[in-house]
Amino acid sequence: QTSQGYAIAVPAPNGVSGVSAGFAFTTIYTGREGTTYSASSTAPTNPGNYSVTVTGTAAAFNSSKTVNFTIAKATPTVSALPTASAIQYGQALASSTLGGGTVLYGGNAISGTFSFVNGSIAPNAGTANQDVVFSPADSSLFNSVIVSIPVQVNKITPVLVNAPVASTITY
């Protein structure tokens, strides 16, 4: 099944009840371990921990079986890396502006933001790859993703504030 753009595997077909091999049965899905999902014959579609109980309703098959399952968050793919504006030597990565970047899941764009994993780092001059994290707008459905992008750190021109004063030399 596919829901909200992520793939899920549910142990029994959605809302199954009826007759199979001559036995009548019903299915009930519920949330477990902190997942809120009221008892329903409709299969869940959001990430979380669930149980499905299949119960025989015919006199010849009066039994039930419960199976626990989990629907995991989806991990999107960064299809186009964001770009970072150049910073000056001595500035932290947080001074750089991140722009662009495309994140997809199942061909659909996922909204969210990019930020530096450690924005307080002040890298050396030159170009070096730095880690950025994509944080999805809907973190209940999607995982964060970390990628590396190049960041240009420009050299600075030192400014002489106080010129040294030479003392007289006696020979």
Write the layout of secondary structure elements.
Blueprint: E1 2-3, E2 6-7, E3 17-20, E4 23-31, E5 48-56, E6 64-71, E7 77-80, E8 83-84, E9 87-88, E10 98-99, E11 102-105, E12 108-109, E13 112-116, E14 126-136, E15 145-154
Parallel strand pairs: 9-15
Antiparallel strand pairs: 1-2, 3-4, 4-5, 5-6, 7-11, 8-10, 11-12, 13-14, 14-15
What are its keywords?
disordered N terminus, 4-stranded mixed sheet, mainly beta, 171 residues, rod-shaped
Average the pLDDT over all residues and give the rounded result: 86
Distance between the termini: 94 Å
Q: Count the DSSP helices.
A: 0
Shape: rod-shaped
Number of strands: 15
Radius of gyration: 29 Å
Largest sheet, order of strands side by side? 3-4-5-6
Detail the poorly predicted runs.
1-10, 12-16
Biggest β-sheet strands, sense, barrel: 4 strands, antiparallel
Order of helices and strands: EEEEEEEEEEEEEEE
* SS-based class: mainly beta
β-strand percent reads 35-45%
Q: How much helix, percentage-wise, in residues?
A: under 10%
Explain this structure.
The chain is an all-beta fold and 171 residues long. 0% of the residues lie in helices and 44% in strands. It contains no helices and 15 strands. It has strands at residues 2-3, 6-7, 17-20, 23-31, 48-56, 64-71, 77-80, 83-84, 87-88, 98-99, 102-105, 108-109, 112-116, 126-136, 145-154. The strands form 5 sheets. The protein has a 4-stranded antiparallel sheet, with no helix packed on it. It has a 4-stranded mixed sheet with strand order 9-15-14-13, with no helix packed on it. A hairpin with a 2-residue loop joins strand 3 (17-20) and strand 4. The chain starts with a strand and ends in a 17-residue tail after the last strand.
